[in-house]
Every structure is written in structure tokens, then in C-alpha cells.
Structure to design on (184 residues):
């Protein structure tokens, strides 16, 4: 063996040992929750996300991690010709999965779906609820970019309360619940 072969073999062995130690603590990601009701999402949550979050400058952009599809906004496949067509099953499924990925089912009140659009000052003890302290929202740079503050200024905002009910397990009747603007 030549000296360069030995270095390559030694280097590969060291790299393999390093990789094994670095990856030893990693595990597969948890699957998305199946406890979050799709019908409630479709009829109650999806319209809020479309209205409040799916603008092109916000989460209706393909460059965002949390992106949403909606009529007259970002469309799956990018077809301009179908911009105003009813939402497809694929688009609804994408939005549902995107929203579910932002929910912490072990601690729903800490869900990113709730805290990211909530004003930072909206934390504290909520009147009429348990005496448990609820966290305020996170900084939402995009919302402040439009000088309108965050999407939800308080936890008593009716749209925020719908999202909160969903992350806590609210359900809707799948047979009677049809999201406006979607194809069946």
C-alpha cells in the first residue's frame, strides 16, 4: 500500500467512526399527528389561514417553509390558468399537513401554529380559563413588515380561538363540512 492509500483508508475509518458517534443520538422524526381533525381543519381552520396567512408576501410564497395554497394565490403546480379554480384535494392536503407540522400535540398551547401569529404581549393568565400561565406569542417579522402588528393581538380573537380549538382536538362532521372554494 502506498502512503496516500493508508491515509485514505485511515481517513475513511475516522470519518466512519465520527459519523457513527454524531448520528447516534438522532432518531426518525415523529409522524404528523393523526388526532387533528381534517374536517374541522377544512371547514374552520383553512379559511382563516387563507384569509390571514396565504397572501403572496406572506405564506402564499413558494420560498416559505410554512407555505399555503389558496384560490387566487399560490397554486400547486404554479398554473396561472387555474389561479381562480377551486382548491384541489392535493392543495388541501398540503395545507393540512403544513398546519399539522406546526402543532405540538403533547403541549397544544405551545404549538407554533398558535404562538407565531400571536402578539408577544398576549401571554399571561387568561380570564375565564384555568389559572395556568399561557405564553405570549413569538416575534412575527412579516406581520410587522406591513405595520399591522401580529395576526392575532389577543387570545380572545375569534379566529385565534378557532385555531386553538383545533390544536386541542375540536372535530367537525366530515359529511356536512365542506370548505368554501374547494372541489370535492
Amino acid at each position: 500500500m502506498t502512503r496516500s492509500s493508508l491515509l485514505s483508508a485511515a481517513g475513511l475509518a475516522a470519518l466512519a467512526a465520527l459519523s457513527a458517534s454524531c448520528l447516534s443520538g438522532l432518531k426518525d422524526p415523529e409522524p404528523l399527528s393523526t388526532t387533528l381533525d381534517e374536517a374541522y381543519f377544512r371547514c374552520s381552520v383553512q379559511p382563516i389561514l387563507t384569509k390571514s396567512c396565504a397572501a403572496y408576501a406572506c405564506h402564499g410564497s413558494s420560498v416559505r417553509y410554512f407555505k399555503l395554497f389558496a384560490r387566487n394565490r399560490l397554486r400547486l403546480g404554479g398554473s396561472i390558468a387555474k389561479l381562480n379554480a377551486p382548491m384541489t384535494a392535493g392543495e388541501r392536503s398540503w395545507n393540512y399537513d403544513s398546519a399539522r407540522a406546526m402543532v405540538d400535540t403533547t403541549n397544544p398551547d405551545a404549538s407554533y401554529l398558535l404562538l407565531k401569529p400571536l402578539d408577544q404581549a398576549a401571554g399571561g393568565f387568561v380570564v375565564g380559563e384555568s389559572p395556568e400561565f399561557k405564553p405570549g406569542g413569538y416575534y412575527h417579522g412579516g406581520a410587522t413588515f406591513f405595520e399591522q402588528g401580529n395576526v392575532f393581538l389577543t387570545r380572545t380573537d375569534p379566529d385565534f380561538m378557532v385555531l386553538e380549538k383545533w390544536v386541542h382536538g375540536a372535530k367537525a362532521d366530515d359529511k356536512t363540512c365542506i370548505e368554501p372554494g374547494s372541489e370535492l
Q: What stands out?
A: The helical segments are 3-23, 38-53, 89-100, 112-115, 141-145, 158-167. The longest strand covers residues 124-125.
